[in-house]
Structures are given as structure tokens and as C-alpha cells.
Automatic annotation (TrEMBL):
Upper classification of the organism: Bacteria, Pseudomonadati, Bacteroidota, Sphingobacteriia, Sphingobacteriales
Keyword vocabulary terms for this entry: Electron transport, Heme, Iron, Metal-binding, Signal, Transport
Post-translational modification: Binds 1 heme c group covalently per subunit.
Stretch forming the signal peptide: 1-24
Residues annotated to bind heme c: 71, 75, 123
GO molecular function, one term: iron ion binding
Record protein name field: C-type cytochrome
InterPro entries reported in the protein's UniProt record: Cyt_c-like_dom, Cyt_c-like_dom_sf, Cyt_c_ID
Length: 155
């Protein structure tokens, strides 16, 4: 099998797995407080959702590009799949021109196994993505409010 065919097959497999995971989860929005199986109250995430919606509006182009890309095969807003969640990325990197440029370059060139700051996972290069598009996606990701308790490194 050629390398390009192998990459396409891997991407399709990852997409299928992610689709199955998301299909198993409920997509209905939460309203008010919920109770866990042990009867303890879980805080309403309405304010957090409003902040994410605000970021989507302000960085609509980046959100649209992200939605159409293969990024969500390995990344999710709040959950780690293969790579870090977008919230962890936002917690680790402050919104700055230097970080936007650096991370956009990482998206385009990819990360080889063991060379990243998130462990041993590899990130596939996105050589066909323009620098402008990569920067728009990174602007959206870095605009997300970081959750408390995530590892933050002001870079």
C-alpha cells in the first residue's frame, strides 16, 4: 500500500471511530443543573457554553475552517482523543501573535512522534493548508476559555 493510500485509510479509520464516539453521546444541550448517578449536583455549564459561542461568533472564519478540516479526528473541544483538547491548547498557550504563528506552523508541518509537547502522539502534516487558514483556526482555538485545573504555561 502506498504511503498516501495508508494515510487516507488511517484518516478514514480515525474519522469513523470519532463519528462512532460522537454518535454514542447525546447532542442535546444541557439546561439547569443535572444530577450524577450518585445524586450530587453537577454545575450548569451555560456560562461556559455562552463563552464558547461568543468565541465562535468573533472567530467565525476559524471556526468554519476547523469544522471543515480533519482536526476533529484527533482533537475535541474538551476531551482528548489522540491529541490534546482545544481547551488544553488554549490553557497552555496565551493568545499572542507569536503563539498563533508558531502553532499554525506546527499544524502545517506536523509533529513527528516524540517531538511534541503533548507526549508521543504524532500530528499529521497539513501541507495543503494555507498559513492564513491555519492561523485563523489557531486564533479560534486560542480564544477558547481555558478550564480550571488544566496545565497552563504562559508562552
Amino acid at each position: 500500500m502506498k504511503t498516501s493510500e495508508l494515510m487516507k485509510a488511517s484518516f478514514l479509520y480515525c474519522t469513523l471511530v470519532v463519528t462512532c464516539i460522537f454518535s454514542a453521546c447525546s447532542n442535546s444541550p444541557s439546561t439547569g443543573s443535572q444530577s450524577s448517578s450518585e445524586g450530587t449536583a453537577v454545575a450548569d455549564s451555560g456560562q461556559e457554553n455562552a463563552t464558547i459561542e461568543s468565541a465562535k461568533a468573533k472567530f467565525a472564519k476559524g471556526y468554519e475552517l476547523l469544522s471543515k478540516s480533519d482536526c476533529k479526528a484527533c482533537h475535541d473541544t474538551g476531551n482528548e482523543i489522540v491529541g490534546p483538547s482545544f481547551e488544553r491548547i488554549a490553557a497552555r498557550y496565551v493568545y499572542s501573535d507569536a503563539n498563533i504563528t508558531h502553532l499554525a506552523e506546527r499544524v502545517i508541518t506536523g509533529v513527528k512522534t516524540g517531538e511534541g509537547v503533548w507526549g508521543k502522539a504524532e500530528m499529521t502534516p497539513h501541507v495543503n493548508m494555507s498559513k492564513t487558514d491555519a492561523e485563523e483556526i489557531i486564533k479560534y482555538v486560542l480564544s477558547m476559555p481555558p478550564k480550571q485545573g488544566l496545565d497552563t504555561i504562559a508562552k
